[in-house]
Amino acid sequence: MLAWVVYLDAYGFGDLSARENARHLYDRLAKCWRKAHERVLKNHAGPNTFFAFSDCAFLVYQFRRNNKKSKVEALKTCLEEVALIMDTFMSSDLILRGGIACGEIASGDNILVGHPVTRAASYESSMSIPCVILPEYEFKEIKDELMEDAHDLRIKPIKLKNAEMTRGIVVLPYQENQFLNQARQKWEHYSLNGPFKVAKIWYETMGYLEEADGDDE
User: Fold this and answer.
1) Arithmetic mean of pLDDT, 133-145
2) Is residue 124 within 8 Å of 97, Cβ to Cβ?
3) Measuring CA to CA, which residue among 72, 69, 90 is closest to residue 80?
4) Which of 16, 78, 11 is nearest to 43 (CA)?
5) pLDDT digits 0-9 by tens, 102-129
């Protein structure tokens, strides 16, 4: 079947696991994933649309073959729900990052396979800031239809960890001001306490969010 595949991962989970009570961390994650699962099921009745384990999950948004309208509608729903799920995690002081890819998959018995699965996961680790990335080449075929029907979406240059540049849609929480405040707090914390490479990531995140906010004015 054809689908948009989303990979989501709780950013900084190793650090959280090392310093936080395991039961408390489990309770926070379980609450957030339950809400995410409920949201996905609400719009996608049927099995094999949500696969979660520990701090990460795959979400599946199917569309009909040879049907651009179906493909566009599935992606619009996907982008909206991912931003709302990011809000849910942020309200529990958990930040998500990840990637979105498109293509042929197979699923069942809590198993999900296909090239989009590995691509979506690879995008998560390539970003220099915590966010969810959809590279332009993943939706090139429906770019005109998508941008015509979703005026708030914009394709932006994206800096990867290896300093290379690409273009795509960056998905952020709907509550961007709250995300900016959290980024600022985390930058201040890690600037004082280290590790400083984490402080640098949050500094870059602040810069990206402030630049994006300026673009909207």
Assistant:
1) 91
2) yes
3) 72
4) 78
5) 999 998 888 999 999 999 999 887 777 8
DSSP 58-99: EEEEE--TT-HHHHHHHHHHHHHHHHHHHHHHHTTT--EEEE
Question: Which two three-digit tokens encode residue 6?
Answer: 């989303």
Residue range 46-81, pLDDT digits in tens: 556 889 899 999 999 999 999 999 999 999 999 999
**Residue 92: CB partners within 8 Å, gap ≥ 6?**
28, 31, 32
Q: What is the pLDDT of residue 217?
A: 44
Task: Return the structure tokens found at 98.
Answer: 């990840």
| C-alpha to C-alpha distance for 103 and 88, rounded to whole angstroms | 27
Under 8 Å between Cβ of 183 and 95: no
